[in-house]
Design a protein that fits this description.
The complex is a heterodimer of chains A (396) and B (256). By secondary structure, chain A is mainly α. Chain A has a single domain, classed as Formate dehydrogenase/DMSO reductase fold. In chain A, 75% of the residues lie in helices and 0% in strands. Classes of the chains: A mainly alpha (396), B alpha+beta (256).
């Protein structure tokens, strides 16, 4: 018990320190402007706030729509126990993406302009609307957890009635903007290095988002099982691992065909920085995880499953960073190394996400052993049904 | 029909005097000190490449990438030719800078209310029927103002009239779908820092190809997802109904 306490005091101290760094960065950013806080310049206008905070943030939150569609659209109810923490992760993820965007925008007070000043030809316009609407969808999907605590059954019933259209809307919005983050980069054919630029960027972004969404579900289930001293749904997570490896394989196959179609296979062997980074990215994020997760024995082993999920997450982050930073550097005519404050802000925001998750999960019914999810009585019905089956088969 | 205005910049005529920048700064009320690079206070700048001076500025694309990518439509390609920026719409996302194939837009990095800065082809003067300040100030005619079609024809006439004087290319005629700034050069353009790997079709088409599919994705996707839900849900309902029937039959059997 004492060790347990010590452990948490240590992590709380670390979190407090990281949040303090984030606070300093915030003061500099809004007090002195982007130039003082970042190493961005006219040749390199987008840095890690876009590359990591926004592009990785949205991708890592993709577990939300993946699991929601598995449970509610495909009606595979056995995944129900992990839906709440996943939706919470996604919801927090999107809120933090919006926070990060407020740091990066030069004129954040004007962010609402996208609502009334339309430019349907702009990918950014579409992403803005999707993120706005999907964050609303996530708030509706997560609301029952809050409402349950305060026994607001009437509101929960209303939410239950609209749940399927809301979830379908969420899946559509996610499909659109997860892919559109790739479409953002279609406009820079001569700036983004050939290993990453592809007319299929939107498709790559979509499949990698689903894969990393699955990996994040596995990853965070392990972390929460440790933090909250609760059991682990290992069989469920192995199955999520299976979906993950399917998505990774589709991605890998498409990537090979794409490189071949663009006559870019030779780029794989040119000795230059981009080549090494590309190989690092696919080895860590694609090749090893596929090799591990296709094997049932390893997929059902908690350590292997956790390690490969972590590798998918790291590989995904490397991919997005390569597209937004390293792959853009050669053509920009300049070098960009993020400033201490850019890192500080990012770390602060991520820490805030962890802390928020911890406290929400602590005080609200996020992890429910008996998942009495009123929003979907169908679950209880199907459980009753499986009990019935047992009864019947016993009786017969 | 209004004819789109343009500039023809003949690099063989430019003597590097800097009158264009001075006139530009005066017209736009910018600090007057000389600058050798584009900046928030220099909408045009002279680059020295040996004996040759190259004027850099916004190219005023026929189908501008900046106007296409801006989420709030802060850029407009006007009927007269200039691509103009409206700070009252701008949210400061810098996608225009990221996307511009010529790396032109400049940003107030040190400001808390940053704006984009770039040449506006003297839009206010154009509306009054005047030419741009830089063309008016140019002492050698290296920068010439006129209708785009006429200047393009003139550029090719100059190339044909003196074979060997120019490379056989008018930069800006085809680049990313054509621009309002046209260049003639005595040496290959790549030697002067011009981007020569640009495609001939306008860049906005690349993203529009995808964006225009969205209505279909939403309709087909929505119907598909609803269909899958209906089928899986129905399957559960049927199973449950069958089960209840079985249980009932079983209970009835017990009673009998």
């Amino acid at each position: 018990m004492k060790n347990y306490l010590k452990h948490w005091t240590f992590w709380k101290a670390v979190a407090a320190l990281l949040l303090a760094i984030g606070a300093v960065a915030t003061v500099v950013r809004f007090g002195l402007g982007l130039g003082a806080a970042t190493n961005l310049n006219d040749q390199f206008p987008w840095g890690i706030w876009i590359g990591f905070d926004v592009l990785c943030g949205v991708g890592l939150a993709a577990g939300g729509f993946t699991i929601a569609s598995i449970v509610y659209i495909f009606n595979i109810k056995r995944f129900e126990p992990i839906i709440r923490p996943t939706i919470l992760t996604a919801f927090l993820g999107y809120l933090l993406v919006i926070v990060a965007l407020m740091f990066d925008l030069g004129r954040p007070w004007a962010i609402w302009h996208a609502i009334i000043m339309w430019n349907p030809h702009s990918v950014m316009f579409e992403v803005a609307w999707c993120v706005m609407l999907y964050t609303t969808v996530l708030s509706l999907e997560f609301a029952p957890v809050i409402l349950e605590k305060y026994n607001m059954t009437k509101t929960i019933k209303v939410l239950k009635r609209i749940s399927i259209p809301v979830i379908i809307l969420g899946v559509l919005l996610s499909t659109l903007h997860q892919s559109s983050l790739g479409t953002l980069y279609l406009i820079v054919p001569e700036k983004l290095y050939g290993l990453w630029y592809s007319p299929y960027l939107p498709v790559f972004f979509y499949f990698s988002a689903i894969a990393v969404g699955c990996a994040m579900v596995i990853f965070e289930s392990f972390l929460s099982s440790r933090a909250f001293k609760r059991g682990l749904e290992l069989p469920l997570l192995s199955q999520i691992g299976k979906v993950c490896v399917m998505m990774l394989s589709i991605y890998a196959a498409m990537k090979i065909v794409d490189l071949k179609d663009r006559n870019a296979l030779n780029l794989l062997f040119i000795p230059r920085t981009e080549t090494y980074l590309f190989w690092a990215e696919v080895t860590i994020g694609i090749i090893i995880p596929i090799a591990v997760l296709v094997q049932r024995r390893l997929r059902e082993n908690r350590r292997w499953l956790f390690v490969s999920a972590a590798m998918v997450v790291i590989g995904f982050i490397m991919n997005r960073m390569n597209i937004t930073v390293t792959g853009m550097e050669a053509a920009s005519g300049t070098t960009y190394i993020p400033s201490f404050l850019e890192f500080g802000t990012t770390i602060g925001i991520v820490t805030f996400g962890f802390v928020a998750f911890y406290y929400i999960a602590k005080y609200f019914p996020v992890f429910t052993e008996e998942h009495h999810d009123e929003m979907h009585e169908a679950v209880t019905a199907s459980q009753a049904w499986s009990k019935d089956i047992k009864k019947v088969s016993h009786a017969l | 029909m209004l004819k789109r205005k343009a500039l023809l910049i003949d690099l063989t005529l430019c003597i590097g005097c800097g009158a264009c920048q001075a006139a530009c700064k005066e017209t736009n009320n910018l600090p007057t000190e000389e600058e050798d690079k584009l900046s928030p206070t220099a909408y045009t700048a002279l680059e020295e490449h040996g004996e040759i001076y190259v004027r850099r500025m916004c190219q005023h694309c026929e189908d501008p990438t900046c106007a296409s990518v801006c989420p709030v439509g802060a850029f407009t390609k006007t009927a007269e030719g200039p691509v103009v920026y409206d700070v009252d719409k701008c949210i400061g996302c810098r996608y225009c800078m990221q996307a511009c194939p010529f790396q032109v837009p400049r940003y107030d990095w040190s400001s808390r209310a940053p704006q984009i800065h770039k040449c506006n082809l003297c839009y206010a003067r154009l509306k009054e029927g005047e030419q741009t300040a830089c063309a008016e100030a140019c002492p050698t005619g290296a920068t010439k103002f006129g209708d785009r079609e006429e200047l393009l024809a003139e550029a090719w006439e100059r190339i044909k009239a003196e074979p060997g004087k120019y490379v056989e290319r008018v930069y800006g005629q085809h680049e990313v779908g054509g621009t309002s700034i046209l260049y003639l050069s005595p040496v290959p353009f790549e030697q002067l820092g011009f981007k020569t790997n640009l495609q001939e079709t306008a860049l906005p088409q690349l993203t529009w190809n995808v964006l225009s599919k969205i209505p279909n994705i939403v309709t087909v996707g929505g119907v598909m997802l609803f269909g899958i839900w209906w089928i899986t849900n129905r399957r559960d309902e049927v199973k449950q109904a069958e089960l209840h029937e079985k249980i009932q039959q079983h209970n009835n059997g017990k009673l009998n």
